[in-house]
Amino acid sequence: MNFNYANELILREKKLELANGRKEETWYLFHNHIFGAAEVARAIAEAAGMDTNRAYFSALLHDIGKIREGFDRRFHGVIGYEMLKDENEDIARACLVHTFPFNRLESFEHYRKIFFDKKEDYDLLADYIRSHPLNDYDLLVQMADGLANAYGLVTIEERVDEYARRHGIEPPQSMLCSMYELKDYFDRKIGRDVYSLFNRISTKDVFIGYPAPQAKMQKERIA
Ligand SMILES: [Fe+2]
Predict the structure, then answer these.
(1) Structural domains in the chain (count)
(2) Under a CB-based contact definition with an 8 Å cutoff, are residues 105 and 129 in contact?
(3) pLDDT per position as a tens digit, 36-83
(4) In angstroms, what is the span from residue 77 Cα to ligand 1's centroid?
(5) Of 139, 135, 138, 183, nearest to 159 (Cα)?
(6) Can you say how many angstroms the Cα of residue 219 is from the centroid of all Cα atoms in its chain?
(7) DSSP calls for 9-33
(8) What is the CATH number of the domain that holds 204?
C-alpha cells in the first residue's frame, strides 16, 4: 500500500460525502480520526517491532467504509472489507474486524440498529472471526481506533466522552473494559505506557479544521 493510493481512496469518499450534502468544514471530523489513528498505530508498531507500514495503512483505512454506511445501510466494516479485499487482504481485514475489541462479538440482536442493519453483515463478520484467529495487527487497529478522535490523540476516557456526546449514547460497558484490556496489552508489549508515545508523534500537518484541537474539545466539555 502506498500513500497516494490510500489518499485517493479517502478523497474519493470525501467527494461522495460532499456530493451528498456534507459541508467541507466538517470533513475534519473524519479526517482527524483516521489520520490520528494511523499516526498512533505507526508509533505503537515501531515501539513493538511490528510492520509500521501495515500498521499505518490499516489504521488509516480502517473506517473507509464509514461514508457509505449511511447511504448503503450496511456495516461500515463490511463495506471497507469489500472495497479493499482484492487490493490488500491485510488492510481489508483491519476494516472488517476493527470495531469489536478482541473480536468479542455479542449476538446480532444485541447490536441490531447500533452497528448492524443487516444480518448478513453480522454473519459475514462472525464467520470471518471464526476462521481467522486474532492477530496483533487486528488488536493494534482496535487500539488505535480508541486513541484518536476528531480533535487529536486522546485517552480512552476522552474518546468515550466524545463518542457519547456525538451519538447521544454511551458505548457498552463491556466494550470499555475491553479497551482498557487492549491498552494494557500494548503497554506490556512496548514496555511503557502507550500514552507516553503521544508526545513523540508529530501531529503538525496531520490534523485539520482547528488550530488547537484539544483546546476546542476542552472548551466544548466545559460548555
Ligand atoms: Fe474508527
Answers:
(1) 1
(2) yes
(3) 999 999 999 999 999 999 999 999 999 999 999 988 899 999 999 999
(4) 10
(5) 183
(6) 24
(7) HHHHHHHHHHHTT--GGGTHHHHHH
(8) 1.10.3210
Q: What's the 189 CA to ligand 1 centre distance in angstroms?
A: 22
Cα 62 to averaged position of ligand 1 atoms, centre (Å): 6
Q: How many angstroms does the Cα of residue 37 sit away from the middle of ligand 1?
A: 8
Query: Considering the entire predicted model, what is its pTM?
Result: 0.90
Cα 34 to ligand 1 centre (Å): 7
* Domain housing 82: 3-222
At position 34, the amino acid (one-letter code) is: I
User: For the segment 104-121, what is each residue's pLDDT rounded down to a tens digit?
Assistant: 988 888 888 778 889 999
Helix (H/G/I), strand (E/B), else coil: 49: coil
Instruction: For residues 60 and 91, give the distance between their C-alpha atoms in angstroms, rounded to a whole number.
Output: 9
